[in-house]
Specification:
endopeptidase fold (from Nostoc punctiforme); six-stranded antiparallel sheet; 6 helices; Immunoglobulin-like; alpha+beta; five-stranded mixed sheet
Amino acid sequence: MLRAFLVLLAFASISAQANGRDRLVEAARKQIGVTTGYDGAYRSIPYPDGDVPISTGVCTDVIVRAIGLDLQVLIHEDMKRAPSSYPWNWGSRRPDPNIDHRRVPNITAFLKRQNASLAPTSDSSNYKPGDLVIWELPGGLAHIGVVSSNRTEDRPLIIHNIGHGTCEEDILFAYRITGHYRYPKIEMAARQSSGAAPPLMDGLLCIANVPRATAGEKSLSNATASAVPYDFSIAVGPHPAVAISHERDTLIQGLDTFASHLVRISQHGKQIASFGFRFSEMKSRNLCLWFNPLYETWSLWPLAESKGKCSCARTE
């Protein structure tokens, strides 16, 4: 059997194919009892997919952890693209991926640019599970929460962190509502990208051609020696499997650069390996997947760093 060891720079699992707003509510509710503290201190965090310790955070971290998009990357890139659309209330002169997405005014500006706004209203029926609501607290502090699927007799509960960890409470009309946003619009805007956010359906995966197996004993001088023919097919996410050529590279385009993608590698119709990746974690929207016959490994690299192993050209 082929030894298929996967050399990856990042791994991410495929998200459950549930309704976006239901998934948002479920992900927010799972934080209850896990995020038990509140800490607004500045912290240096990884980029992308950065987060503070799950046991703590602020109101925005409930959203960041639940929304299913990498708000850290989306807001950071959008602030660089359209700095005049953001408030810059904190004395900084350049975007800071450690903190910008954790500030309610920045999330507000981003959502407005995504055309995700709905008019605030005192009619509770207008607030659907998964909606995002922004309030002005006493003293002028902005606060954000998620509309829950649970409700009282006449209004939905809110999942939020207002100072004592993530909880689910009846506070929809406890403070003045200054913003109302809906997740499907956020998701659609991010995926269609009208210029306010980075294009998401523009990732390229180039799969290098695979040599034909040769007879004999494997060695440095006979790296392609194998008793099993190198006849592979590869499927990426929902895309149908494609046979990998021995003569030319295989190009897969139009992949979502912020989604997780599952790659399934098969030989003679039998799956032998699988792995996940995100373009955002690879820090490139052009990737190269290639097979090393000497070690019988598959490696994923940014196309620009593949040292000529892949030669696909993007087609429009």
